[in-house]
Amino acid sequence: MSTLVQISVVPSKIEDTSYILELALEKAKLRSGSISDWRIRKRSIDARRDPVKLNLQIEIWGKEERREQIPVFVPTNVSEAKEITIIGSGPAGLYAALRAVEAGFKPILFERGKDVRTRRRDLAAIHKEHIVNPESNYCFGEGGAGTYSDGKLYTRSKKRGNVLKALEWFVHFGASEDILVDAHPHIGTNKLPKIISSMREAIIEAGGEVHFESKLTNLKLENGTMNAIEINGHQWHSCTDLILATGHSARDIFYLLHEHNIKIEAKPFAIGVRVEHQQELIDFIQYHGDCDNEYLPPASYALVEQVGDKGVYSFCMCPGGIIAPCATAEEEVVTNGWSPSKRNNPFANSGIVVSVEPKDLPNFNEDDPFVCLDFQKQVERSCWEAAGKTQRVPAQRMIDFVEGKKSIDFPKTSYQPGISSVDLNEVLPKQITKRLKKAFVSFGKKMKGYYTNEAVLHAPESRTSSPISIPRNPESLEHIDVKGLYPCGEGAGYAGGIISAAIDGINCVDAISKKHSNPLETSRNETV
Ligand SMILES: Cc1cc2nc3c(=O)[nH]c(=O)nc-3n(C[C@H](O)[C@H](O)[C@H](O)COP(=O)(O)OP(=O)(O)OC[C@H]3O[C@@H](n4cnc5c(N)ncnc54)[C@H](O)[C@@H]3O)c2cc1C
Fold this sequence. Notes:
Strand order of the largest sheet: 13-14-17-12-20-18-19
Structural class: alpha+beta
Distance between the termini: 32 Å
Number of strands: 22
Largest sheet: 7 strands, mixed
Bound molecules: flavin-adenine dinucleotide
Strand content: 15-25%
Oligomer: single chain
Number of helices: 13
Shape: globular
Low-confidence stretches: 521-528
Helix content: 25-40%
Radius of gyration: 24 Å
């Protein structure tokens, strides 16, 4: 058994391994000659007090102890194995395919978008030419919304074993080992595409299939059981186990399920704006003025405020980041954010969003599963119209917004397609604006300097989570009415980020495995 100790160091000591070891040995009451190995197991920043400290958890192995090396990904040769069909190559679909390969199933993965490399051109077209390809954009394509995301890998999931497995697979396919140590792991948009393509290569190498530009367009059931799927409007494939991991932006999938009378439900979600400050200001606030400390990473923040009966909270904060145009169709605008691994842009952006429940909406009808989706669409379209019917977004300085004044000019922002000065009070629904205003003032009290007219609001932040859920049996993970259909990941309402989506992908394969009495342990016989 190894020994665990907690120590704190000032940031400038983080690279001084002898100092760290000395402190840890002192704390553990051990001598250096009595140990065989050690490592930093967890690292977090404690910025609550001045000076800022780094909390480290150190793991030490004694002379007789061995550091365990467990293989993290053990593929089987699945070229002739029973098939599992997966729709969507986001984190949920990709991890499902990898797990299938481990469990002895042959994954057949269909993805409507393009491979990571080709997809990049379509992203450039959104930024520069305002052209949104409805099949290839920030949400659709290899790796899903996760590929050109920020790659922050924290989750509220409490099942540490599952989280660790999801993180270890990222490391196995090329991410830095730091993500296993940092309390708030982050990969960065520049690193993700290579990791995603390594995952794809491993699936293919093991005998699985990955098909791009292959969109699920129809399905066939027989006696309430999955029977076949149609790809691209003409190719039918028989399929008895279908993992549907199409993400929160595949609206056509929700309509398709509804047409087939497959139950879907309106789900609470959140809408707001993406706020951008100068990173320097956020560092100054969070690090008590110590903003030039080269050992501290660009600072982040997490804010929450209850305004009346609704929560207003920060979402997907990106230190040193960029605001991205994330629409998936023409005639709408959507913002989100990402950052490179070094987080070295001069901007700090975050969604600030207000919770929305189906019953809050003017057209609420409990039999209508589309009430939240319709509201989301309406907000995205109003913003598109208000900013000039391109991929420019409506924008306003923070205090101007609270005071209801259109902004005369703007500081430079990171949103490349451009911004248009609009009074967001006239574009966004009042139930959102009135709460955002109160929250901004209150956030300014919690973080002195946050409430400033140098901050620019970009609208809308509207794809925080799925506005629809696809109900499934909590044990079998199959749809409540359709055998063999496994709603999975964020689009179905079972995940809220990369790691939780990835874990849900694994869980769906494990559920299929259980159904076919194929315990994972016995399928690990033939390694590739
Ligand atoms: C810019 C940006 C930044 C983000 N930053 C972070 C972050 O830092 N940390 C974090 O945890 N999360 C982040 N997210 C959210 C995260 O990416 C998602 O939570 C996650 O990707 C959801 O995984 P998923 O597999 O459920 O769905 P998705 O990633 O949405 O994948 C769904 C896939 O299904 C495909 N698909 C859809 N319909 C069909 C069809 N009919 N046929 C075939 N394929 C189809 C899509 O093309 C897509 O590839 C970010 C998202 C964006 C857009």
